[in-house]
Fold each of these.
Amino acid sequence: MSEPILSIRGLTKTYRNGPRALDNVDLDIERGEIFALLGPNGAGKTTLIGAVCGLVRPTGGTITAFGHDLARDWRSARARIGLVPQELATDMFESVWRAVSYSQGLFGKPRNPARIEEILRSLSLWDKKDAQIRALSGGMKRRVLIAKALAHEPELLFLDEPTAGVDVELRKGMWDQIAALKERGVTIILTTHYIEEAELMADRVGIIQGGRILMVDEKRAMMERLGTTEAVIELAAPLAEVPPALAGFGVELSHGGTRLSYRGGNGEGRGRAEVAQLAQALTRAGVDFTSLDIHDSSLEDIFVGLLGGQQQTDAA
């Protein structure tokens, strides 16, 4: 395996007279991947990004990007890192063109109007190039932030809640832009409240809570390992009890004996196969049913379950 584009070891951040925002974080980011960092408000996502991008001074630990220790050799890596922050931090009276061009020159890049035009067109901002930023909608302002971050052609791009406040149609368009960046070889780390974003786009997912990384895994592996299958079977006639032939499936009877509920799979993708076996067992037992509804865990189900379990552990 090649050297990670970003390697974080033992990263901590404790604010004076305040909480520990990051607690001994270890994380490796592979070149060319889209990595989604999920966590509730206050979990440490923005602090972690700020530490890598030079906006937050860590209390302890090391950050290595492109083989450079950022504490000692920041300048060698900074021009290769881009950031789209949560908050709009730009001159509202500046035109879109000037704001994006300024970001290009800020990192020592030569003037390249053709590249600026390409970025603005790709983000559907070309017809607004001469407009003042203050006159734009919220979604357009966020796209200006992305344009500014792309102006110096970073190899590692942080997107902190990139689609917050953006309507569904524009959000889908921005997903296409993020996918296109990956195709060009840009490594992307994004935080998001829209878990479907991570489920749709991410190669790997990390879950952070209370400044600690709870889990990092490939998205598919996480969903297969921690996911479950739920099935609801509506019966044609009520049962007084679960038939002995179904005892091994762990089903529960409810709704006056007219509904059987199954939950299983053991996080190993076996759930749907077991539901098929359950349906066959019902038929063999002479139990008629009118409907069978199956639901597999989404990434959001896993995320909520992990955070709920962590909160119970913290409270113990």
Note: The two ends are 40 Å apart (CA to CA).
Amino acid sequence: DALPPDAHPTSLIAPALFTYRVLDVYPHDPAAFTQGLIVRDGQFIEGTGLQGQSTLRRVAIETGEVLEQHPLDAQYFGEGITEFGGKIYQLTWKNATGFIYDADTLAQTGTFSYNTEGWGITHDGERLIVSDGTPLLQYWDPATLQPVGGVTASLFGLPIANINELEYFNGAIYANIWQTNLIMRIDPVSGQVTGVVDLSGLLDYAPAPTPDAAGTQVTPAPDVLNGVAYDEGTGRLYVTGKRWPAVFAIELLEVNP
């Protein structure tokens, strides 16, 4: 049958499907409720969440050691982070407030406001790209931190909700989908999902938790996948999750390319 006049055939193109190969496994603070993750100068900058526990921290990749951290005031629930122009931008969930830090020192240098929830943030070299849990990805002018456009993320023409942590590399937006093991590769112009990464089973590669003397687990149970960081210098892709005991360096493998 012919497509209706208002149909967009490109939205019916199936996305590429990816699985993964684990290249390395690194320790990660199992109490860290990871909300944002980036690589800078061979180290992680990580934003963590939860009321009264939210931080911005610098972390050694190889050891997982927290080298320094900036705690948020107790009323804030930290969310995604990105670096642009020597500044770190950190969102908060429902506080409608973001924080700006010096990327070298993690010293807070400013705040900003927005009128949605804050979930994930990244950039494409020119604009900040922000998610709020809905299918809409907003583009912000980094000079004014005001919206200058956006796209609706869609798969087969249907909007994709629960877009969370973001990372931009190789010309595409990679987005964790909250409460799933999936990362979507999103075209920044059309919003169309062009790839789906299935990370099911990844946590099985983490070391077993260390029990205390009574034989019980002493750290919180791992929560959902969250945290995508791409190292432009090495081409390595890192992923982790909220309260996960490990960060994984992975290689994406296309299924039946």
Note: The two ends are 28 Å apart (CA to CA).
Amino acid sequence: MKAIKKPFRFSYVIIPVVIGLSVVGWLFGKEFNPQIFSDIHFSWRLLGGLLLAFLFMFGRDGGLIARFRYLSENTLSWRKAFNVNMLCEFASAVTPSAVGGSSLIVLFLNKEGINAGRSTALMISCLFLDELFLVIACPLALLFFPFSELFGTITVFSESIKLLFFVVYGVVTIWTILLYLALFHRPEWVKHLLISVFRLPLLRRWKKAIEELTDNLVESSHQISGKPFVFWLKAFGLTCSAWVSRYLVVNALLFAFTTDGSQLVAFVRQLILWVVMTVSPTPGGSGISEYMFQIYYADFFSVSGMALVVAFVWRIITYYMYLIVGVCIIPGWLKKFNF
């Protein structure tokens, strides 16, 4: 696979940070309430909740790292699997959510010693497993919880979120079906479909890259689709553990900062939030994530503005941390492979 020699720039980090902090600052200025900080007291509950939030985030990364190693059939060492995961998370943090870091998995895996064909198959497998989790989990949430708890009270905001959720969920479901066909049944059909789509004038510039990707997919899909059901069940179990750990970060923070609201409702609302955030146009959902969180979880707090404080802490743990880690490991990784 041909390496794209593009220098690492700190502007990739600065831009999303500026967007996120600007929105947080604007919201604080708009909703500033001195009582917020007087209601935050050091306690074992606060400390325990913050510690749990970090542990759940580490658990989430542990699940994804183990999945990379498992899907590669231990070809990736734990160190290499860690590098690939952190590079993907950094790429997700500095690109719009609709793009994400998944599109670069092939490059990262290839540089860590996995050939182009297997790298493509691993990328499609990871995408498929992640989307499958959402496709299965969302209907369960809708089945067991009323819309008023999932989307909030009937307001313009909640109605807009509801509409956007169902539109995005429909697109994710269609995309998951295409990934399933590409992996297990009709890789050639998916190849022809994607090449036809990328013949459109607006997408033509990526046609050659798509042709290479789909050639690698067809070459490797027969091998990977022949894996036993137990293999995929274990991979899906690792995927579920990673997503559940990510969602539990919010539960831990709510435990630390408030006693209001249902922890179960808080957990399932994460499903709605993450589905909606997949179409965020800003790098890593900067600004939009903070805004969405403080509105979506406002009913868990009795003091106005406290939701924004928790939203900021949530983003430090689930987003800014990856920017810091990325800045630490990417320059060395690029130098190692002569980018």
Note: The two ends are 13 Å apart (CA to CA).
